[in-house]
Amino acid sequence: MAAHTKKAFEIFVSKIPWTLASKEMREYFGQFGQVRKCVFPFDRETGFHRGFCRVVYGTEEGLQNALQKEAHIVEGSRLHVQLNRTAPRRSRERDDS
Fold this sequence. Notes:
Layout: E1 9-14, H1 22-29, E2 35-39, E3 52-57, H2 60-68, E4 72-74, E5 77-83
């Protein structure tokens, strides 16, 4: 029996100001598609998030919509958004050339 690999539609967001929380990020990125998860790592010493997060979409359409937007500006701060290349992808295209 083959192992089941879950398809991940995940972006990595950095340059997040400390004033933004998971709720605001979910609301903002929810305009592009259904957000299944928004994960913020926190600094144990300060208690603040570390300035980046992972946003997981329920569909590839949501992921693509978020990646196609040129500038992501939340509360006056420009966020850096990119495909999370560490996320497991079942159907990633292979280039065998």
